[in-house]
Amino acid sequence: MRLRFHAFVLTVALSWGGAASVSAAYALDYPTRPIRLIVPYVAGGPLDVLGRLLANGMSGDLNGTVVVENIAGAGGRVGTAAVAKAEPDGYTIGIGVVASLAIGPQLVHTAPYDPIKSFTHIGLVTSGTLTVTVNKSVPAKTLGEFVALAKARPDEISYGSVGVGSLPHMAAELFQRATGTKLRHVPYRGGAASMVDMLAGRIDATFEMPNVTAVYHREGSLRVLATMDKVRSPALPDVPTTAEAGFKGLEMDFWAGVIGPANMPPEIANRLAASIRHVIDQPGFGDSLTAQGLRVHFLPSGEFVQLIRDETARWGEVIAGAGIKLSE
């Protein structure tokens, strides 16, 4: 009966004419096997948690199975390239983020994909921000005092990041560009090592997510001077935004969405987008993201593409101004 029904639908589709109608017929029986959701970072981080929340919710909504696969490396570019190279049949999708779509391709001479042309942009899902944080021995209680201190001591105030081209590094470059300061970059192999040295007073500052710095701020081990967002963070309600602290143009959006390979059938892309929207609207999903320093922020495909274009232009200016290039 199932085979005869599919034959009937395909016959009707062909009678209407055109590949789009045939595509719609196949979409009626989607998914028929597990969907792979590539997270381009290691397990355990905020984006991995996001991927697993989506996979769990979408599995139920689509009456199928969505399986997370972590493919880390090169600041997210390895996993993102795997999405671009997959068959555009709806069975491989991935998490696309600001680092891998708007920043990463501009850091290398030959990018493995085009952030617009290589993908089907299913929808933006979440956004967050970073904080400007100093260790407790730094003689600055406000962002204004920290900027004044950095101007008085060029190349002396140090900050840690997880490497050249990472989000903390880019946030620091944006900070220096907007404030006319010059900080000393200390790259680490991981965020844990950077935070250990922050707490020990071996580096002066960091640009980290609110969920990472909030607990240390509350106990007095570190001092969060501002959040790089348009609104205050729920994790740090007592901390002003950079604009509230008197510094406009210092917003740092940490955003992520779902992408697939270019040329996915529109019916499948639309079905995935509808499923994602259903999942993120469920009670508790937003709370789970808040615990990771993120918030629900849905944008449909067209607006997601425009965000990538805008962010690519914005970060391109920062990268060119700082002269940042990675060896390939």
Topology diagram in text:
Layout: H1 2-16, H2 19-27, E1 35-39, H3 46-62, E2 66-70, H4 77-85, E3 92-97, H5 98-103, E4 119-128, E5 131-135, H6 143-152, E6 158-161, H7 167-179, E7 184-187, H8 191-200, E8 205-208, H9 210-219, E9 222-227, E10 254-261, H10 266-280, H11 285-290, E11 294-299, H12 301-322
Describe the structure in brief.
The protein is an alpha/beta fold.
Tell me which oligomeric state these chains represent. single chain
* Overall SS class: alpha/beta
Percentage of residues in strands? 15-25%
Order of helices and strands: HHEHEHEHEEHEHEHEHEEHHEH
Strands side by side in the biggest sheet: 2-1-3-10-4-11
- Please name the CATH topology of the largest domain: D-Maltodextrin-Binding Protein, domain 2
Number of strands: 11
Number of discrete helical segments: 12
Name the CATH superfamily classification of the largest domain. Bordetella uptake gene, domain 1
Radius of gyration: 22 Å
CATH class wording of the largest domain: Alpha Beta
Largest sheet: 6 strands, mixed
Shape: globular
The figure for the number of domains is: 2
User: Helical amount among residues, as a percent range?
Assistant: 40-55%
